[in-house]
Amino acid sequence: MVVIGVQHNELIVKRVRDGRETTLSRSETESTHPFLKIKVSNGCMLTFFHSPDGKSWYRVNDTPLDGSFLVRWDRVARPGLIHRGRTNEPAVFNYFNLNHIH
To answer: N or C terminus: fewer CB in 10 A for the chain?
Structure first.
């Protein structure tokens, strides 16, 4: 699994591979509810972005992450939303959009 998320005022990109969790990047954000985006190139190269307003996007990682190790469901890897934390503190997702660009 590869994820981007917000914890306190930090954008965090993590990878879970072979049962081990690794933090790939941490950066501060002024927005407590930023827009997050993942761009997938060549079917497995992942570039992460964040935006305070959904209009101006900023790269999180300079070099795309190779996601070819991800387990595929059927024929392709599938994106999703996850909440990790206390069950009495649920996550709130205000918006989710998935675009397929040819």
So the answer is: C
User: In this predicted structure, what is the pLDDT of residue 58?
Assistant: 92
Per-domain boundaries in the chain:
2-66
Using CA atoms, how far apart are residues 26 and 77, in angstroms rounded to an integer? 24
CA distance 37 to 51: 8
For 29-44, the pLDDT digits (tens) are 888 788 888 888 888 8
| Distances 3 to 25, 94, 102 between C-alpha atoms, Å | 11, 18, 24
Cα 52 from Cα 30, distance rounded (Å) = 8
> What are the DSSP E strand ranges found in 9-100?
10-17, 20-28, 35-41, 45-51, 58-59, 65-66
Q: Which residues contact 101 (CB under 8 A, 6 or more apart)?
A: none
Q: What is the rounded CA–CA span in Å between residue 59 and residue 75?
A: 28
